[in-house]
């Protein structure tokens, strides 16, 4: 049925055309509401994705900072280990030196004691 209104249309025909126009208008209105709802849903989805991106970006920055701190701690640990090794080497050398001096000192004391004993023995022999 044509929706063009002409003078020859009867009241019933006009009524039918009006009903068809009303149905088409309602369909368009429903479609418009559906499209607006869909646009709102898409906007909400986009907002959620943007918020998720911000959160992920923030978490990534936090993780990068954490990695940086951990790398600095690792380097600090390496430095500390190097320093500890140097200190241990110095202590080891010092202990060896002290032990050597003590041993030398004991050897000198034994030699000195032996020399004194020999001296007195020789003296005794001369007196006899």
* Termini gap: 163 Å
The parts where pLDDT drops under 50 for at least 5 residues are none
Task: Summarize the amount of helix as a percent range.
Answer: over 70%
Rg is 53 Å
Number of helices: 1
**Beta fraction of the residues?**
under 5%
Largest sheet: none
What does this molecule look like?
With 128 residues, the chain is mostly helical. It contains one helix and no strands. It has one helix spanning 11-127. The longest helix has 117 residues, at 11-127. The model has no long low-confidence stretch (mean pLDDT 87).
SSE order and pairing:
Elements: H1 11-127
Keywords:
128 residues, mainly alpha, 91% helix, 0% strand, rod-shaped
In short:
With 128 residues, the chain is mainly alpha-helical. Helix content is 91%, strand content 0%.
């Amino acid at each position: 049925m044509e929706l063009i209104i002409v003078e020859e249309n009867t009241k019933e025909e006009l009524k039918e055309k009006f009903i068809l126009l009303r149905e088409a208008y309602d369909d368009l209105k429903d479609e418009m509401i559906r499209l607006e709802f869909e646009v709102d849903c898409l906007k909400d989805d986009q907002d959620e994705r943007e918020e998720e991106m911000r959160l992920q970006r923030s978490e990534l920055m936090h993780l990068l900072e954490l990695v940086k701190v951990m790398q600095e701690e690792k380097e600090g640990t390496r430095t500390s280990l190097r320093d500890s090794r140097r200190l241990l080497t110095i202590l080891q050398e010092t202990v060896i030196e002290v032990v050597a001096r003590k041993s030398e000192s004991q050897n000198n004391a034994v030699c000195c004691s032996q020399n004194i004993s020999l001296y007195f023995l020789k003296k005794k022999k001369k007196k006899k």
